[in-house]
Specification:
Layout (H helix, E strand, L loop, with lengths): L1 H18 L8 E3 L4 E3 L3 H63 L4 H11 L27 H17 L4 H20 L6 H18 L17
Antiparallel strand pairs: 1-2
Helix pairs in contact: 1-2, 4-5, 5-6
Length: 227
């Protein structure tokens, strides 16, 4: 390419030099073409040669830019491939570590604490007396719960006299407790969060006590609630 360009340049310069001795007519202006055209063959050749040289320079410049862009894309592709491979194998290692932790036997002490936390909380003697008297939390002493309170108090007094509740009575207690919990949830915006939590825990404990006969119902004496 360089040899061809050099040869063309030499021939063009020789032609241009020989044509300088000829008369130079005035430039011709062509309306509508936006400018003047070459007035002699030598001038036209010079313009054409300049266009060829300029085009060759632009070609070399654009080729170098394309090569740089390709190299950047190639490097970016390698970097993405490395990151993807690293993430894949890291994910496998994390999954293997998780599977290994699941296969290990649980710590006996931790398992015992977990089972204890899942066990329903018993009411204390300060909440449910031996004679069946129920000391209700403040949130459950409103008139909205008056009907359920009276029915539950009657059932637990009978439990204290007979030692246990019949299957039908246990079902009745569970239904009354569920109704009170639903009504408690509906009024949750009207009470403090601590009052709501205490009241709900009390009702769950009351349902638990209904399933346990008094002969084996050993409970702590001190009340867990704060008045």
């Amino acid at each position: 390419m360089r040899i061809l360009m050099t040869t063309v340049a030499v021939i063009g310069l020789q032609w241009y030099a020989s044509s300088r001795a000829e008369a130079q007519p005035a430039p011709i202006f062509w309306p509508g073409w936006g400018g003047y055209s070459s007035s002699t063959p030598a001038e036209g050749f010079g313009h054409g040669l300049g266009d060829v040289i300029r085009s060759a320079g632009e070609y070399n410049y654009l080729t170098s830019q394309a090569a740089l862009n390709w190299e950047d894309a190639w490097r970016q592709g390698i970097d993405n491939n490395i990151k993807g491979t690293t993430a894949y194998f890291q994910g496998r290692l994390n999954n293997q570590a998780y599977q290994a932790s699941m296969r290990r036997p649980p710590n006996p002490e931790m398992a015992a604490r977990y089972l204890e936390s899942m066990r329903p909380k018993r009411l204390t003697l300060g909440d449910l007396g031996v004679s069946g008297d129920i000391r209700w939390p403040v949130a459950l002493t409103t008139d909205d719960f008056a009907g359920e309170r009276q029915s539950l108090e009657t059932l637990f007094v009978g439990r204290a006299d007979r030692g246990s509740l019949s299957p039908q009575e246990r079902v009745q207690v569970e239904q009354l407790v569920e109704d009170m919990i639903d009504r408690l949830k509906a009024a949750v915006r009207e009470m403090r969060p601590s009052e709501y939590v205490k009241a709900k825990q009390f009702l769950v404990g009351l349902g638990t006590e209904a399933r346990i006969p008094l002969q084996i119902a050993t409970r702590p004496v001190r009340s867990s609630r704060t008045f």
